[in-house]
Amino acid sequence: MNKLLFALLLTAGLAYSPAAKAQETLFGSLDLTGFWFTSTQNFSLYDDDAQYFSGGSVDFEFGKSLYIGWSWNRMRDDALISGRDRTEFFRLRHRGLNLAYAPSSNRVIHPRFGVYAGGGRLEVSGDAEDRVFGISPSLGAEINVTSWFRLGLEGGYRFITDVDAVGFESEDFSTPYAQLQLRFGFSWDY
Description:
By secondary structure, this protein is mainly β. Helix content is 10%, strand content 61%. It is elongated.
């Protein structure tokens, strides 16, 4: 354990040495500049019924404006959905890679563009659990409340694909959404 800790500290020290900063790289301006945890409250409409999703993400910040991490969200309650030939209750969970870009993130209010994509599970009553794929692009604004807390308001569209539930199509589960994000973390070098 001590050897692992020493190796990590040595690697971190070398990464921030003056010689490492002088080296040109393909992504030279994408230094690690922060770490963030986000709690997400998301609302979607299915057949004129608002559904609540909760989730979050863990993101690394690069170059003060690029965020790469892992996101997840799930419906809190079952929702009623009408397909081609039947009406059922369903529940959706979704997780995957999160990418976001927030230009001018040092300003109090700034834009934020994001997309997260990955696998998920769709549970439709009367059917077996179905594996699906989802991609959720979004755009919105973020407010720097403090140096360690940001508040985000975003809107987007959740595209769900690979639905195999009998009597339903992918479009039945794809929907626009609005979300509130509470982001906690830090960004150094400001």
